[in-house]
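Following up on my earlier message about zinc ion. Here are the inputs again, as you asked, copied directly from the submission form:
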Amino acid sequence: MSEVEESEQVLFQGPMFGRETNLKKNPRLVQAGLIPAKRMISDALSRRAHSIVAEIKGPRLAVRFVVDGIVYPAGTFPGKQGMAVVQTIKLLSGLDVQSRGEPQSGGILGEFNGQEYHLLVDTSPVKGVVERLRIRIEDPKVSFVTPTETDFPGSLKTKLQTMSSPPPGDDALGIILSCGGAESGATSLSLVAMHCMDPYLYSVFNFADVGGKRLVNVAEPDDEPGLDLEIKLDRIIRKEGDAVYLGKFDDPQQVQLLFDYSDRLCFFGEIGVRKPAEAVSQLIDWVGTDKVLSGLKAVISQKLIRRLCDDCKQAFRPRPQLLKQLGLPRETTVLYRAPTPPPDDDLNAPSLEELCAECNGSPYHGRVPAYEMFEMTDEMKEFIVAGGVDAKAIRQQMIREKQLMLQQDALRLVVNGTTSLEEVKRAFTPPRGVQGKRRRVQPQPRRQQ
Ligand SMILES: [Zn+2]
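Thanks, got it. Here's what our run produced:
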């Protein structure tokens, strides 16, 4: 692991989730593990990592950082020290240090450069590996739950607003869901969709555990725990509530009930499939065509694409042939790409890393979403009634209707200079192993000086 100055060290401020810990009871472990654990986490924070994965493999603990969705090797610890690092992090999270055979979850409150972080810790036993440690790093101040916080496109906001917010006096009705693969941000996206409703005109209730995220002008029902969902929904209707956020739509029986209520309330939530067309097909399977046609309004998904570093991206004039091939507007005069590395034989030329302090030659900084949205239009209803119920057919119909598709929206980010064609190609190439394709090795970002 690289050395980090003392002033840049993370401060551990205690376990999260009401757990307790006593470092004094394990002085040997703390002595062996605390300093390297601090160094590892400080290094990850200074490189803007959003996850750390550490596994004991053979005689060493191998550490990887995930920055903007890309995995980078981040050094190793000798076995004994590595074990001490993993156990110290468990201790700091208030987890059971003795138990290694069961998965455990907890968290540590951390402070780095005057800013607070949530370090969400998961440990799990893995075959062939003693124990795998995963730390997700969250900035509690950035909750990404409103259209403004996520820079949600105005056109999508207006569409969702029209669907969920009828003229005042009328009832808000129907179901609007998000979906997406693991770590696609589908939960945040469903909250953004909900916040597209005007929070001052409509009364919105939250029924889900949103992991401490601060919702804007959304009420929590003051029901006793364990109350039947039907009774809770009836109470909301009596209170003249308009919409309910429900979290996961994963229980077919409950989903059936929600569709039954979708003529009196508007529902927001998330369904555990990757693509909107798959979500529609799944819902038809669970509750039948008729209910889906009358209750479902939209399903939205997103894919996070890396943002080109503003400080070192290079403009170029695209050839008309390229624009035509990609279906981009003919009048596009400038696109951006990663800076060209200096020639190998020019030993005096500064490296990309030296040229840009902002991204350290990565040359990406942060991520932005591209979107896909299924809309239940009249044509779509006719198509489904005529038997178009499988995901592939629904997706084809979305394309025919020119509904917003992920790859097309990703090209919007290329045209407006946010990202590069190369990054879009990378993001849509299945990871190695899925089709045997190898991903290009990316330069590894270094921590900020
Ligand atoms: Zn840069």
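One observation from looking it over: DSSP finds 14 helices and 16 strands in the chain. Hope that helps, and feel free to reply on this thread.
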